Structure formats: C-alpha cells, structure tokens
Request: fold
Amino acid sequence: MRAIELSRKAFEKAAKIFPGGVNSPVRAFGGVGGTPPFIKKAQGSYLYDLDGNRYIDYIGSWGPMILGHGHPEVLEALREALGQGLSYGAPTEGETSLAEAIQLLYPSMEMMRLVSSGTEACMAVLRVARAFTKREKILKFAGCYHGHADMLLVKAGSGALTFGLPDSPGVPQGATRGTLVASYNNLEEVREIFRNHPGEIAAVILEPIVGNAGFIRPEPGFLEELRSITEKDGALLIFDEVMTGFRVALKGVQGLSKIKPDLTTLGKIAGGGMPLGVYGGRRDIMSMVAPQGPVYQAGTLSGNPLAVACGRKTLEVLSRPGVMEEISDKTEMLGQGIRSLSHKTGVPIVADWQGGMFGFFFHSKPVRSLEEAKGCDSARFKDFHQKMLDRGVYLAPSAFEAGFVSLAHSKADIEQTLLAMETCLET
Ligand code: PLP
Reply:
C-alpha cells in the first residue's frame, strides 16, 4: 500500500476552506472513493504527491499536457514571456500569432476570439449563434459536457423530445428552457426534434468525439448527417473541440472527418497548461462579436501573454513532423493492450482511442451513447481505480472520463500500466 498520510491531512485542511476540499468537483475522487493524492510536482509523464508517491499520469491536467509536464521548450517560452510582464489588458502580437497558428490547422475558424476557459468559449459561442440566427433554442447531446454555463447544465438523458430541466439547483428554469437534448449517435431523435421545432433551433453543439461520458466515437455518418440537417434547417453546427482539438489529431475531429462546422470551441491544449479558451468560425457570424458587432463578450485576462506564449509553443512543438504520430502510436499501444486484457483476464472491457485520447468501459458491448455507458460496471471501475493508484498509475477518477497520453509517456510507462491493469483485474 502506498503512503497517503500527508495527502489525507492536506485534504482535511482543504475541506475546511474549499467545498469538498477541491476547486473542481471530480478532483475530490467522489466517483471512486478514497483520498485524492495532493500533488507536489509533475515532470514528463509523472505526477509526484506529498507522500513521495510517483504516478504515471493519464489525466494530463484533463487534457492540456500533451507534451508532458514541464516540457523544456514550453518552460523556456514561459520564462521569456515572464520577463515582459504578466498581463497588460491591451493587444499583443502574440495573440495574433497564436490565432494564426490555430487558423492554419482549423481553417473553418476564419475569425476567432481568445478567452480564458472552455466554459467561457462555449457560453460565448452560443450567444453569438443565437444572435446570428435570431433563434433561441439549442440542441445538445446527453453526456456531452460544454462547461458549466447555466443553459448547458441540462440533465443528461432527461428525454430527447422534452425541454431539459436544470441539472443543478441554482440554475433558473428559464435558463434551460431553450435547451433540447438528444442521445448521442441517435439521428432519429435529432430528426424528430428538428421536425418538432422547425426554424427554432439556433445551433447544434456537440463533442464530435465524446470524452466526457467516457470515450464515445460518432458512428459513421452521424456527423455528416448533423451537418446536413442543420444546413437544411438554417441552424448552425458547433463542434466543441475543447478536448478533441490538437488531441485526436492536430486538426481535431473536423480535420479527420473533413466536416466543416460553422463554429468551433477550443481550450485545454490551446493554452498548453495555462488558462486559455478560443471560439471562432465563419467570418459573417464572428463579425457580430463586439466591438465589430453588437454581441457583447469581454475578459480582463483574455489573451493573457503567458497563456498565449505557452499555447503557441505547445502548438509549435506538436506540429513538428512525427510528434503527433508518436503520441498516436503510444496511445494505440495502450489501447490495443487494454483490449487484449479482456481476453487474458475474462473481464469484459471495451476500449477505443484516437490520436492521444483513449477510453475504456467495463462493458461487453461497444458504447455509443451516455445511456449505454451507464450500463458499464462502475463498481468494478471504482475498485480498479484504487488498485491502479496503489500500483502507481493515475487514471481519471471516474468511469465516465477519457484518458490522455502525452509525448513524454515512454513505452516502458505503457508496459508498466498494462501489467498493473492485468494484475488489478486478476486480483
Ligand atoms: N468543453 C469540453 C468538451 C470539455 O471537455 C470541457 C472541460 O473539460 C469544457 C468544454 C469546459 O472547459 P473548462 O474546464 O476549461 O471551462
């Protein structure tokens, strides 16, 4: 058993001042039980906690750390930016340079705006979509997460054909009255919603590969059909690539699928580990954002020079020949290894991956939606997660989260992970 005394004490202290002892809910390990390790430092593919335990990290700060922790070139870029001051609240060339780098990979983003988080990007993009279309309703999918704005906190699985109910106390009913919910990969539901609300839906927003209900891939034709349905109705299509952007491929799902959304949100890797989000898309739509247009959106720290420097360097390193391929190969090695554990141990597991993102469910059938994901053996996951931590592997503390591989992960890390998994499933 690993030592956890110092983390336990730190958690007790934190719980007196932070709700649940944390500053973002899933960090509290509520889904798996036990004490969350309190992290002292991170380097490469490893996290180190207060008690001196080392973990192979498959969370990567929930996505951003695709180059691994403390990449020397990213740190150097940050040091250089630090020397110039922390924040100006005035425009810089760095912001344009980052935006140009993003646009090269995401040509659908003809214009964009930098913000400070994925939540902010999703909240703002929907405001613009509603203003542009002069429509109020939005359609999202059960199990997709787009940040914690009121209108998006809609109970997953509450029924695709009814208006959503607030998922959290404190969200006014009015805020989610315009939010419609469909099951992921269920085109019939989408068609029916559009039949019931013709000309009323401003936008369809989705994770074009889901990571927030575990890893769920769109079925062939799903994204294409969403593109066609929205086009016919005059609704906008929004790809929330906060997680998938620069992760499943440099060019995201839109690059892989060749489907051009009207609007896109990015975050996580775009800031390389610093707070940064982006929303953007068609020029005619984005021209509506203030001060060019009437749709208000602003931010004291938007385009923060440190976040911009960190994101810019991260994208530069990631774009070098072979880098993304190396990350994909390592992820494939892990994914194939997890698949083969099912045969070796007799435990039903399904695994899938794309680029540097992977997921697995203790389930006997491939999972296509949140409803199906809920059928997985989450009690087994809980036990498994604890055992993996004891063997020095840090997986997301929930059966319904994707995992992330970085450039810094070595083949030895992956072999050690697979061995630990096999042992944990056999005991
Ligand atoms: N959209 C997606 C797909 C996400 O995965 C997340 C966060 O995990 C968000 C939006 C919200 O981003 P943030 O946590 O930076 O506010």
